[in-house]
Backbone:
């Protein structure tokens, strides 16, 4: 009797396990709804969609917006990549995936950016949010304003990392749009998303998407995401022969099946995308800033409200402003008029600033020489031979060059006018005032004489501030100048012919 009972129990267990494996597990894996989209990144043309407007959980695809705002904040001068960020208890307690930061620890923003982009670290994402906006809630409001400015009309962010939260939703279409902005709005940072490993300060981290990056030809980003509610998500981009395609998948059932589907979608995109198409850059969203910390008529941050290098809290009246922002998500503020300065004082201030810039630039020039020019010995031109007789022309005689010589001269002039290509430039940042931009241009020109000698310093007024540009370069010189400046951690990107 006991043997029969044991046999019946064994069969019952086997039956239950079979039901679980055949019915419950597949249903659980398929619980996350599926959506997909493929886009020609160059033109923004949609090549394929499946449920692309369905609002779903984006998971860590959220970190694309967190990083986008970090890049924006650096360009606008709110923070720098070398800003020391003090890790809060909230950031340190975020669940994995994480870098393992400790409360009270100080770490440079650049390492947090790398950890969020490569490892998809939740603690790093929260720390970035708090460093830029003071709190994750304020940062989420800025994320939503930026998303609306991009046209991501069906996206609502509640946090900076993407862990499941009520109302934290997006769509395959919106995330594809965000991916395109990541590629073209801040191209100087896009290489972060193709690094299979990165130094995150406290340790080296591996890319969450290294399998697809290693296996799919031309793949160079962008971001993975996973939660139980979302499934396995991915926004991927690849470039082949001048064609660039973005593919987005929501609700994959595993890393392997998601990657296989994304590869199929990228193949579909390359098949459907035209070989030649005019590049139509996405319209960069208007700078949003931290409302309440920035007057509505100004794009210059109040310095004392931003986390400084030592992580000290703001003091005095500024704290009251920050608290007011936290209570009211959309405060209305009048533009703050710039204080009037006597003309003589302005001139004196500019002269003093220029003297400081020259002094700083001279010191940096000496320091940089060992990095870039130590292996390049200076060459002195050979002296002119004493017995050299120079040609002369009688001032009173008419000059009538030989027709063949005239034709050669005309040909040379024509070639110079068409192939000189000095229609390129570089941008080294956007600043809050014309004077600040001029000062940076002068300082940079003095530290990078070898490539910027002869370039035109130009300040361009925008709605969001003053762009500091060097113009009148050819493409090769502009590219070299940018690479040399970026090697010194100076923000730089090329400006093509208009």
Residues:
């Amino acid at each position: 009797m006991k043997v029969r009972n044991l046999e019946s129990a064994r069969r019952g267990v086997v039956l239950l396990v079979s039901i679980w494996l055949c019915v419950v597990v597949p249903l659980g894996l398929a619980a996350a709804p599926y959506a997909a989209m493929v886009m020609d990144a160059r033109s923004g043309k949609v090549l394929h969609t499946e449920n692309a407007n369905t609002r779903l959980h984006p998971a860590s695809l959220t970190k694309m917006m967190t990083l986008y705002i970090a890049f924006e904040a650096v360009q606008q001068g709110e923070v720098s990549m070398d800003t020391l960020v003090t890790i809060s208890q909230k950031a340190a307690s975020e669940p994995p995936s994480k870098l393992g930061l400790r409360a009270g620890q100080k770490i440079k923003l650049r390492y947090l950016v790398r950890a969020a982009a490569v490892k998809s670290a939740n603690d790093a994402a929260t720390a970035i949010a708090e460093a830029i906006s003071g709190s994750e809630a304020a940062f989420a409001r800025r994320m939503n304003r930026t998303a609306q400015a991009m046209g991501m009309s069906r996206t609502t962010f509640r946090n900076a990392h993407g862990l499941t939260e009520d109302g934290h939703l997006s769509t395959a279409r919106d995330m594809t749009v965000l991916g395109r902005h990541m590629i073209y709005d801040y191209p100087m940072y896009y290489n972060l998303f193709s690094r299979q490993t990165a130094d995150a300060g406290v340790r080296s981290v591996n890319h969450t998407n290294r399998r697809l990056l290693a296996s799919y030809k031309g793949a160079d980003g962008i971001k993975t995401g996973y939660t139980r509610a979302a499934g396995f998500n991915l926004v991927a981009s690849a470039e082949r022969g001048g064609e660039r395609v973005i593919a987005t998948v929501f609700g994959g059932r595993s890393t392997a099946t998601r990657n296989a589907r994304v590869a199929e979608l990228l193949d579909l995109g390359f098949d459907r995308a035209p070989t030649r198409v005019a590049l139509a850059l996405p319209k960069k969203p208007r700078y949003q800033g931290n409302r309440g910390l920035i007057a509505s008529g100004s794009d210059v941050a109040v310095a004392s409200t931003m986390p400084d290098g030592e992580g000290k809290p703001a003091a005095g009246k500024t704290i009251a402003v920050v608290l007011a922002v936290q209570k009211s998500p959309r405060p209305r503020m009048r533009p703050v008029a710039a204080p009037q300065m006597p003309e003589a004082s302005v001139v004196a201030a500019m002269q003093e600033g220029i003297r400081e810039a020259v002094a700083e630039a001279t010191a940096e020039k000496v320091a940089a020489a060992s990095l870039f020019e130590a292996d390049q010995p200076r060459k002195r031109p050979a002296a002119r031979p004493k017995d050299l007789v120079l040609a002369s022309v009688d001032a009173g005689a008419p000059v009538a060059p030989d027709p063949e010589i005239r034709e050669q001269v005309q040909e040379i002039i024509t070639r110079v006018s068409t192939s000189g290509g000095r229609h390129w430039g570089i941008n080294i940042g956007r600043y809050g005032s014309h004077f600040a931009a001029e000062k940076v241009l002068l300082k940079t020109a003095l530290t990078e004489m070898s490539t910027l000698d002869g370039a035109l310093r130009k300040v361009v007024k925008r709605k969001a501030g003053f762009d500091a540009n060097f113009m009148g370069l050819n493409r090769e010189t502009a590219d070299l100048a940018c690479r040399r400046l970026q090697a010194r951690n100076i923000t730089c990107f090329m400006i093509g012919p208009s």
Q: What stands out?
A: Residues 29-272 form a domain with the Beta-lactamase fold (CATH 3.40.710.10). Residues 343-372 form the longest helix (30 residues).
